[in-house]
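Figure S7 source data.
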Amino acid sequence: MPYIDGLSLGSTVAAAAVTASVWLVVLAAYRLFLGPLARFPGPKLAALTGWYETYYDCWRRGSYWVEVEQMHQKYGPIVRISPWELHVDDPDWNEAYKVSSRLNKYYWYYRFVGSSDAAFGTADHDVHRIRRKAQQTYFTLDSVARFDNELDRITSKLVSRLQEFKGTDQPANLSNAFRCLATDVVTEFAFDKSYNLLDSPDFAAAFQRTLRDFPEIGLWHRHFGLILNILDLMPRWLTKIINPAGIDVVDFMTDIGARTDRLVNDYKKNTDPDERSNIIHQMLDSTTLPAADKLNWRLALEMRTLVGAGTETTGATLTAITYHILTRPEKVNRLVAEITEAQMKRQTPLKYQELQQLPYLNAVVLEGLRIATPVAGRLPRINTREAMVYKSFSIPKSTPVSTTQRLTHFNPSIYASPDIFLPERWLVSPAERKNLEKYLQPFGRGSRSCLGIHLAYSEIYVTVAKLFGNFKLQLFDTDFDDIKQVHDFFSPFPESDKGLRVTVL
Ligand code: HEM
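Tokens for the predicted protoporphyrin IX containing FE complex:
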């Protein structure tokens, strides 16, 4: 029987197969030999197909970073890691982060957060500037200093929770405790209401475990799309059946929406600008943020992103610092002696600004940020206006180019014996120290760098000081494998989810 204008089904299929094959051959030839990225070094398979990256990201669970490291070892400082993207491993190359270049983020890569309408996930440079500006005055050093008392209250709660473990054989899971603390801090700071996760008897263990699944789901969403949208639409009852532990996370996210609505209503009732004690009001006050960006759903998206940005990062840093210090008794002694001496001179709790002045603590924090490198993901940027240059290579405009902080933080020519936690490396002459600081970039670079940097630093200093100033801790059934990066789910994740556990002596 004729199928299409006289052609049989068999010949239609054959014609389609020939067309597809020709198209694939042309595409392969373009990607490998003819396209503008063909001259960049790298494995041919990665240049040929995006499935190469998908395989490592999805099936090998966020392990493309290991491949990318190996590509650099084999092919040099600039490599083509996919048909579309280049990656640079050169600590001195900053072109992709120059503020004046007005670069975009790479939409495809960042869609893993499912929030391209929040400042963090916004691809376009100009739109991002407006969204960030509406928030940034809320995150200044002064603003964080005004938060001192709240920070003291929340960190003291961690201390009193850990007192419960003192002298018992029961281990405390500090990985979970730190993430509870970070969530309580960021929610209190940003929307004037702490979620009090530190009150949870087991430091919200099930909640934290479920929360840790999301970045991995995000990776699948990056590659296949729709996944986060489907989860978003899933009714609560269905989530309850599929993943009962997930319900707490759903409720948490829903509550952030409800909290946003409440704050928007308060704003409408109260027009006194001195009463602004949360970031929602700050954004509503903005004269540059367009009306569409002041809608409740978008403000809630910013809130959820803040919680996401401020929790895992700070939690991972505190976990790394505590683990590494506890494996070296001489470092514990030195840190405790410095904190105790400073505290004895003061009747009230030491504040962030004072703690920053303690040389060893300061070195511990910097080294902790280096070795934790709490943002594991590469940070791709796109210059749509002109070509970027790397040495003899001209990078065609609109090409995504990324770098990975970990490669710089573990570069042995900058940080000798990079795998060793060595706060002492920071206690050197001012000139040497300046050089080390120049390459320490845990908070990112350029116009997209971390908005919460002062809040993060204050949390880390105050928590470490209180932890080691108040307790003698001992690692419990925890070794380096329990904290070391195996997966790049944008945040670094270890293989196991056991976490850092300690007994409180
Ligand atoms: C140790 C703790 C932290 C580290 C290492 C860290 C690191 C980073 C990095 C590297 C970026 C840039 C990511 C990119 O280029 O795609 C970033 C962005 C961001 N971080 Fe943090 N962060 C930390 C804590 C926080 C905290 C406590 C908050 C506060 C709520 C926060 C809020 C943000 C926001 C809003 C952005 C997006 C900024 C923008 O796009 O304009 N971060 N962070």
